[in-house]
């Protein structure tokens, strides 16, 4: 595993936090898409997510799960997994 750089994951942490805000505001489609993007990004990293990142994603999943069905979450997450970073940032900033 490589050493984590201080700045190589900050956009993803910011996106995750904004996705939680989105889910709390009832924008669950946006939140679920961003969840898919974040999960896809984490799978492609040579290191494990930080504790804070894991807790944020757990919170995001929990808030989303209380609002829409699992199959809908999976469908939106699959769309989000295909997003690139610029699109994910744009979606997060629109929250």
What is the alpha-carbon Rg in Å?
Answer: 13 Å
Low-confidence blocks of residues: none
Mean pLDDT: 91
The proportion of residues forming helix, as a percent range, comes to: over 70%
Cα(first) to Cα(last) distance is: 34 Å
H-E string: HHHHH
Overall description:
Helix content is 71%, strand content 0%. It has helices at residues 10-24, 28-43, 51-65, 70-81, 85-93. Helix 1 packs parallel to helix 3, helix 1 crosses helix 5 and helix 2 (28-43) runs antiparallel to helix 3 (51-65).
Please sum up the structure shown:
71% of the residues lie in helices and 0% in strands. With 95 residues, the protein is mainly α.
Key words describing this protein structure:
single chain; 95 residues; mainly alpha
Secondary-structure topology with pairs:
Blueprint lengths: L9 H15 L3 H16 L7 H15 L4 H12 L3 H9 L2
Helix pairs in contact: 1-2, 1-3, 1-5, 2-3, 2-4
């Amino acid at each position: 595993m490589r050493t984590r750089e201080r700045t190589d994951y900050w956009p993803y942490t910011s996106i995750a936090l904004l996705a939680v805000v989105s889910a709390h505001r009832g924008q669950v489609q946006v939140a679920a898409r961003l969840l898919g993007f974040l999960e896809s990004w984490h799978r492609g990293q040579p290191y494990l997510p930080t504790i804070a990142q894991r807790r944020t994603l757990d919170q995001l999943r929990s808030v989303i799960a209380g609002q829409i069905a699992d199959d809908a979450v999976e469908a939106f997450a699959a769309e989000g997994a295909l997003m690139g970073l610029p699109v994910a940032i744009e979606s997060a900033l629109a929250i």
